[in-house]
Design a protein that fits this description.
Structural class of chain A: alpha/beta
CATH architecture of the largest domain in chain A: 3-Layer(aba) Sandwich
Radius of gyration of chain A: 23 Å
Distance between the termini of chain B: 48 Å
Largest sheet of chain B: 3 strands, antiparallel
Oligomer: heterodimer
Largest interface: A-B, 86 and 78 residues
Shape of chain B: globular
Strand content of chain B: under 5%
Shape of chain A: globular
Helix content of chain B: 40-55%
Number of domains of chain A: 2
Strand content of chain A: 5-15%
Number of helices of chain A: 16
Number of strands of chain A: 15
């Protein structure tokens, strides 16, 4: 791509350049906070100067789902070796794209979809020598969706999955992780992540728990809320019943009653100050954060304590094997959070700066090992949600920032591939047992029903009963590309 | 999909149109001047330079004059000033990182003079805590990081890098010019080669040391010297030409070439010969002629060896070329053993060695006497003697199944115990002989070294002194080898079955070593081992000792000094602006130029460029004085405004119509807690404090060891700096922070101590006085009626709860609870 690609949309989009979250909130009032505080601010004359109102927590439409479990494989899962089999890769092993009968791989119009973030970087290159599939495929379930042998448990759950084989994204480096969550590459203008929007748009179902939780290694930027404010950042948790939260219990012999009085006083005093600083987002967020902190320290340890789960359930999530246990515990905790009304649970898999799935070399060893860590627990989660009747109201998303190149990198790896890749969704009014969209014969371009990453966000919001355009802040007009389009074909 | 493509395409092509202009015309690449716009508004001519006496602003603070003009043009009304206590707390926290005491609040409230604010600012700038507060800001920007590694292996940064931190603190407290600070950090070894105080500054570069990869190391240096001092992202030109700025890939390597020769080492300080315990980590030029090559696509395996790249700076900043002059170093700079304190260091160490050796001989004699007395047999065989002769029970006790009488075996044990004791004494005596030779060796070597480096060529005197040193060393080596052999023999005798193989091996090598020394001493040597007083950092995990002890070069390339002077050249358009922006950001919590580390083409001219430029020019013209810069900012009316946002119509605060609040950073928060509790230890400087062993440590937070391996849990919870890169602290707001303030040992201890203080001083306080004093001490303001009532009600509830629990001292417990709640107040953790 060309040399002068903008780093920031904001530098060239005057509508986005000068406004921050403070601007909106100063004029529009609060997007959250207790009723008392809201009333007080309204009385002070701050508030609503037009048609727009902050979300009330009531859905805009009729919700099909209440919660989201968002599983994200960091680094880039090979679509061809997971959910989008391409036998032609075996047939044309070692050939260049031009040596195959398939046209359009090098079509400049299609290639335009992606911007190359770093020209001539060691990674992020298209590889022109076809690399054969490193694993076999079989059809799964009654639907017969083909899924690779690295995911046998998920294959057995194929009838619950809506596999989307035609995802694409615009950027070719791991900043695309941010992009999958926000719709914008990390070098562009900073938008809230999908979890933050859900958290912002929906009221809470459980006052004792954070509504937006992250488990596992985070991608680069931790401020999910962006201009919505720090109150919409994911709360990081780890699954350690002894200390799921740092500083989870008071020092010394302070009683719960005494601590309740202390928190209550701090809250009261902060509210009294709020009249002088009505649009101080940090103060608002801190009030909320204190209240939540107090309740959280009581509630969270119970949620991540699995003593009451049956051995059979624990086995379902793979808690009986070292390979599957760490991820299984996070998923089991996610189910328990869903049961308690948490809206959005984000689980990131794959350590390292780029993410463990980033198999530039040794793809076979890498993916066979990592898939074992996630396959059984994820299938276990689906089965467990289903038998408890929770799958109907919970959407499970299984995604990654991009796929991997059909061509080989080095002798045994694949590079980043943003032109076409696969994810799946399940539950919450999503149709199971379908494979939607397609890449071309070599798995290169998304050629049928192609979906940009925000289409996943649009679909989630629709199922949760939210309208992305109505969540939008008046001073923060988003591009249509940011809102995305609902993938109607996968809805039940 | 097509519409998305259309949007992206439209957006991209819009960007292309703006990029045609001549990049050298970019605002940040042109030197800051005090020009046009605000002279017009103040109706003065440019000839009346505002820098000299500031007539253009009619005596007003230029910050206010400029921003008032902006606000008037936008019809924006500025906020009224904050209350006196709020202003005071703000300025205390900003300048010293600690809140004012109640007495200080009272004194300021009572001071109605026109210079009341100035008095406070001056007093704070003069306090030693000011240097500590601002050192931490600069430690963020300059990437302070203590060493870390695996076990004893140092992999990253350098030991004792805290000397550099102390240099930062001291430099700020003495208001050393920022230009001078930059020069000393980049080239202190070239500027003042023999000055240990100045050499501390080069910790800035020594900190980048990385054992395993020289390219990684230099990549960090290139990236962060340009980001920190110039606001340039030279790192984006490592693999290809910069995509936005006029920086070629060759510029990256030309910058690297400036640093190509440098390396790190530890030099001795007065009073310590053990460099593991103390020493100055510093840099010097080691590889004077090592070429720099462009790495094709940034691949170190693929250098373009066809043309070496000369040290240089990007052409767009070619207001001056680097003036590189090689520097001849004084002898003590490349022979640190010649530093005057080294001889006394080593004589002291040698004399201490004699005392220890004598003690060992005494102990060995006593043990032998005990062994010779039959009555002491049991004691001698079953207990370790003080001289270190450990007799293992396993060997000395009779075999359990032995049918023989115990007499024989006891006699055997007695003999072998005697033998061991004699051998130990022999080893101790030989060690003493060697130790007693050491002071004369130190003197002889030092005499010879001084003579040798005092003259260009050898003199009779120097030859004679060399002869003495050679001879003394030879004697010493012989005595040392004999002592080593005796020690090995003694060790062999006491070795148990597990250690015997090892002991045999050591005995063999000690025997061989002695033979070798004997052979050498028979043929006269020509050289001796100088006192090194320095340890070169390993150039990789496999570097040999022989390579490591080579002499240091007697010259330095002068490249870094040339670069440093170029960076602080009055014509450099970036340096002062970047620094002013950093300081401004920390006082006003919103930058004048939003991208603190990128003033390149992607950074449009800031809204208040004239203000930035005025401050930058004034800064340069007044000795790059940071204290003067603080004064400008803190004594402005803009800084004094209330942060309330009722009725302010500048939502982004683009025109500084109000103060922007900020959260206390991690260090200021912890320090303030301890300070209020009366528990903060003001001891300044010195070695780092271990964050693991210091949950409730009393030193200021900047003294904790900080590396990726050494994290302080409480500080991390509040967005502590990432030592790899932190040009601006993040300000997250998470429930975990509330829990840390509510549940940490730090806050509960601080709350208890503060309650004690407030209860006792000056006399036992009533509940009402306690509430009012606690509120004002913690939050810096008197409580409103409603606030007082809320506190009183909670105190009553807390007392009731404490009585219900039948806790001892229920009143004290309840008051502590109140204090703890106040420490959780938003306005405690916030700079209003």
């Amino acid at each position: 791509m060309n040399h002068n690609m903008p780093r920031s949309f904001s530098s060239i989009h005057p509508g986005l350049s000068t406004l921050t979250r403070r601007g909106f909130l100063a004029r529009a009032g609060l997007g959250f906070g207790s009723l008392a505080l809201g009333t007080m601010l309204a009385r002070d004359g701050l508030g609503f100067d037009g048609g727009w109102r902050p979300p009330t927590g009531m859905p805009h439409g009729s919700p099909q789902a209440k919660s989201v479990i968002w599983i994200f494989l960091r680094g880039g899962l090979s679509h061809m070796e997971s959910f989008d089999p391409k036998p032609a890769l075996n047939q044309y092993e070692g050939k260049t794209f031009d040596e195959t009968p398939f046209e359009g791989i090098n079509d400049p119009e299609k290639r335009k979809r992606v911007r190359v973030v770093v020209v001539n970087d060691a990674n992020g290159q298209q590889r022109n020598k076809i690399y054969p599939l490193q694993i076999g495929f079989q059809p799964g379930g009654r639907s017969g969706i083909e899924i690779s042998d690295w995911f046998p448990h998920l294959r057995a759950s194929a009838d619950d999955l809506a596999v989307i084989r035609s995802m694409w994204t615009t950027d070719d480096n791991h900043g695309a992780q941010v992009q999958f969550h926000t719709g914008r590459h990390m070098l562009d203008v900073q938008e809230p992540s999908i979890g933050a929007w859900v958290n912002y748009g929906l009221g809470t179902l459980n006052e004792n728990l954070p509504q937006f939780i992250n488990m596992g290694p985070r991608f680069f930027d931790k401020r999910d809320g962006r201009y919505l404010g720090p109150a919409f950042d994911a709360v990081p948790l780890k699954i350690d019943p002894r200390e799921p939260l740092a500083y989870a219990s008071p020092e010394g012999d302070l009683s719960a009653k005494e601590q309740a009085i202390q928190f209550d006083l701090a809250g009261k005093l902060n509210r009294l100050r709020a009249s002088e600083h009505p649009a101080d987002q940090a103060l608002e967020a801190r009030i909320k954060s204190y209240e939540l902190a107090f309740r959280m320290q009581m509630a969270v340890p119970e949620v991540v304590n699995f003593d009451r789960e049956s051995e059979e359930t624990k086995r379902l999530y793979g808690l009986d094997a070292d390979t599957t246990k760490p991820f299984g515990m996070q998923l089991l905790a996610a189910r328990r959070f869903v049961e308690r009304g948490v809206r959005f649970i984000q689980i990131q898999h794959g350590e390292g700066a780029a993410g463990a799935w980033d198999a530039h070399s040794g793809l076979k060893a890498n993916h066979s090992k990592l898939s074992q860590q996630v396959d059984k627990p994820t299938a276990g989660l689906l089965g467990d949600l289903k038998r408890r009747g929770l799958l109907e109201q919970t959407i499970v998303v299984f995604a990654t920032e991009f796929g991997r190149t059909p061509g080989s990198q080095g002798s045994d790896g694949r590079d980043h591939h943003p032109y076409g890749f696969s994810i799946w969704m399940a539950g919450g009014g999503i149709r199971g047992g379908i494979a939607h969209g397609a890449t071309d014969e070599l798995g290169f371009h998304a050629v049928e029903n192609a979906h940009y990453v925000t289409d996943v966000h649009a679909t989630l919001l629709q199922q949760l009963g939210l309208d992305s355009h109505r969540l939008e802040l008046p001073d923060r007009k988003r591009l249509e590309a940011d809102h995305g389009n609902v993938i109607h074909e996968i809805l039940a | 999909m097509s519409h998305i493509l259309a949007i992206f395409t439209a957006v991209f092509s819009a960007a292309l149109q703006g990029s045609e202009a001549d990049p050298s015309e970019h605002w940040a690449f042109r030197p800051p001047t005090i020009s046009g716009s605000f002279f017009a508004s103040s109706q003065r001519s440019p000839a009346e330079s505002p820098v000299a006496g500031q007539p253009a602003f009619r005596g007003r603070n230029p910050i206010d004059a400029i921003l008032d003009g902006r606000r008037r043009a936008k019809s924006l009304a500025p906020n009224p000033p904050a209350s006196k206590p709020i202003w005071l707390r703000r300025v205390y926290l900003d300048l010293i990182g600690l809140p004012p005491t109640l007495a200080e609040i009272r004194a300021f409230e009572a001071d109605h003079s026109a210079r009341a604010r100035e008095t406070v600012v001056e007093r704070l700038l003069a306090r030693p805590q000011h240097g500590e507060r601002w050192a931490r800001h600069f430690m963020d920007i300059w990437r302070y990081c203590d060493w870390w590694g695996l076990g004893d292996q140092l992999r990253y940064s350098q030991k004792h890098i805290w000397h550099w931190r102390d240099w930062i603190v001291e430099s700020l407290n003495t208001d050393k010019g920022y230009d001078q600070m930059v020069v000393e950090q980049l080239a202190g070894d070239e500027l003042a080669p023999g000055n240990m105080d100045t050499l501390r500054a080069t910790g800035f570069l020594a900190r980048n040391y990385y054992l395993f990869n020289r390219t990684t190391w230099l990549d960090d240096v290139v990236e962060h010297t340009t980001k920190a001092f110039l606001g340039l992202t030279l790192n984006c030109a490592k693999c290809h030409d910069h995509k936005y700025d006029p920086i070629a890939q060759t510029d990256y390597y030309a910058w690297r070439a400036i640093f190509e020769p440098y390396h790190a080492r530890l030099d001795e300080l007065p009073g310590e010969t053990d460099l593991e315990r103390n020493g100055i980590p510093r840099v010097y030029d080691l590889h004077l002629d090592r070429p720099t090559y462009l790495q094709i696509k940034g691949d170190p395996e693929n250098p373009d060896k066809s043309k070496p790249i000369a040290p240089g700076v990007p052409y767009v900043l070619a207001f001056a070329r680097l003036q590189i002059q090689p520097i001849n170093l004084p002898a003590q700079a490349h022979q640190p053993g010649l530093q005057p304190w080294v001889i006394s260091n080593h004589l002291d160490a040698a004399n201490k060695g004699i005392i220890t050796a004598r003690q060992t001989v005494e102990n060995a004699r006593r043990s032998l006497a005990e062994a010779e007395s039959p009555a002491k047999l049991t004691a001698a065989t079953n207990h370790s003697s003080e001289s270190g002769i450990a007799l293992s029970n396993q060997e000395s006790q009779p075999e359990p199944d032995s049918e023989k009488g115990s007499g024989d075996s006891q006699e055997q044990d007695r003999v072998s115990a005697l033998e061991r004791a004699r051998s130990a004494l022999d080893a101790a005596e030989k060690a003493l002989t060697a130790a007693e030779l050491r002071p004369s060796l130190v003197r002889a070597v030092m005499d010879a070294d001084i003579e040798r480096y005092a003259h260009v060529s050898a003199t009779n005197d120097s030859l004679e002194k060399t002869g003495v040193a050679v001879e003394t060393e030879s004697k010493f080596r012989l005595a040392e080898a004999e002592a080593n052999l005796a020690k090995a023999q003694s060790d062999r005798l006491i070795a148990d079955s597990k250690k015997i193989a090892d002991a045999e091996k050591k005995l063999k090598s000690a025997t061989e070593a002695l033979e070798k020394v004997r052979k050498e001493s028979s043929s006269p040597a020509t050289n001796y081992t100088s006192l090194r007083a320095s340890s070169k950092a390993l150039e990789g995990p496999d570097e040999t000792e022989a390579n490591r002890v080579k002499s240091y070069p007697a010259t330095s390339t002068g490249r870094r000094l040339a670069l440093a002077r170029w960076i602080v050249d009055r014509q450099n358009p970036l340096t002062a602006r970047v620094l002013v922006n950093h300081v401004w950001t920390r006082h006003f919590n919103q930058p004048l130029v939003p991208s603190l580390t990128d003033f390149g083409l992607r950074s449009p001219a800031p809204e208040h460029q004239d203000l930035l430029d005025w401050l930058a020019v004034d800064f340069m013209e007044h000795g790059w004085s940071l204290k003067r810069l603080h004064r400008h900012m803190l004594l402005s009316e803009t800084y004094a405004m209330s942060s309330s946002n009722t009725g302010v119509h500048d939502p982004e605060n683009q025109f500084y119509s109000r103060m922007t609040t900020q959260r206390l950073d991690a260090q200021a928060l912890r320090d303030s807690l301890l300070y209020l509790a009366g528990a903060l230890d003001f001891q300044a400087g010195g070695p780092t404090v271990d964050p693991q062993k210091d949950d409730i440590g009393m030193r200021r937070s900047l003294y904790f060891k900080q590396s990726p391996e050494d994290l302080h849990k409480f500080l991390e919870t509040f967005d502590n700096a990432d030592p790899k890169e932190c040009y601006r602290r993040a300000e997250t707001l998470l429930p975990q922070q509330a829990l840390a303030l509510a549940n940490s040992k730090l806050t509960s201890v601080a709350a208890a101590k503060l309650t004690q203080r407030l209860t006792r001083s000056p006399e036992p306080a009533s509940d009402e006085i306690f509430i009012r004093t606690a509120f004002e001490t913690i939050l810096g303001e008197k409580p409103e009626r409603s606030e007082y009532d809320a506190c009183a009600e909670s105190l009553r509830q807390l007392l009731e709860a404490a009585r219900d629990l039948q806790a001892p001292q229920p009143e004290f417990r309840a008051r502590t609870g109140l204090v703890q709640a106040l420490l959780n107040h938003n306005d405690f953790i916030t700079i209003r």
